[in-house]
Amino acid sequence: MRTGRWPIQMKAHSQSKEPRTVLVVDDDSRLLRSIARLIRSAGVNALTFDRPAHLLASEVPETNACLLLDVHMPEMNGVQLYEMLAVTRHDLPVIMMTGRDDTQTRHLLQRVSAVAVLIKPFDESLLLDAISRALALSRNGQRG
Q1: In whole angstroms, what is the distance from residue 81 CA to residue 85 CA?
Q2: Which superfamily, per CATH, for 24-139?
Q3: Residues near 124 by beta carbon (within 8 Å), at least 6 away in sequence
Q4: Is 120 exposed, middle or buried, given 0-12, 13-18 or 19+ CB atoms closer than 10 A?
Q5: Does position 132 have pLDDT exceeding 60, yes or no?
Q6: pTM of the entire structure?
Q7: Is 85 helix (H, G, I), strand (E, B) or coil?
Q8: How many CB atoms lie within 10 A of CB 112?
Q9: Nearest by Cα to 133 from 20, 18, 36
């Protein structure tokens, strides 16, 4: 991730006392830790999962939450994970991230109405902006 010059703290949302949460899934443990630190420094909860199966086995919040999913993972891709969550009524707003900007990846991403698609390495300010937009949609009961 590239460090930007934007302020890290996100605006507090007085409309809801419910904690804001980002569920992050990526098989790169170093990136996962870095993203979690950034999200927490912005005053938002970060729940991290190094495998899609770990998220599927967890309790997923229904509001005031969003997903940050890596597209390419060994077990299943992030689009498949999102589709599985949507089937179980956990169709939270989603931000997709990928290290590949190729035709196959762009085609795959067409299956998801993502708030944002971030190409790694991405600027921290882009991630925080996408998270802020996704959480606003979640609070309003909207999805992607």
Answers
A1: 6
A2: Response regulator (3.40.50.2300)
A3: 1, 2, 3, 4, 6, 8, 38
A4: middle
A5: yes
A6: 0.89
A7: helix
A8: 20
A9: 20
Sign of the CA dihedral 58, 95, 140, 113?
negative
Token pair 């790694």 in the structure block, residue: 120
pLDDT digits (tens, 9 = 90+) for 44-87: 999 999 999 999 999 999 899 999 999 999 999 999 999 999 99
Rounded to whole angstroms, the Cα distance separating 60 from 5 reads 32
- Three-class SS of residue 140? coil
DSSP state of 2: B
Which neighbouring-strand residues pair with 98?
Answer: 119
CA quadruple 45, 140, 138, 6: dihedral sign: negative
Cα separations (Å) of 55 from 13, 85, 121?
26, 9, 23
- Name the average pLDDT for the chain: 89
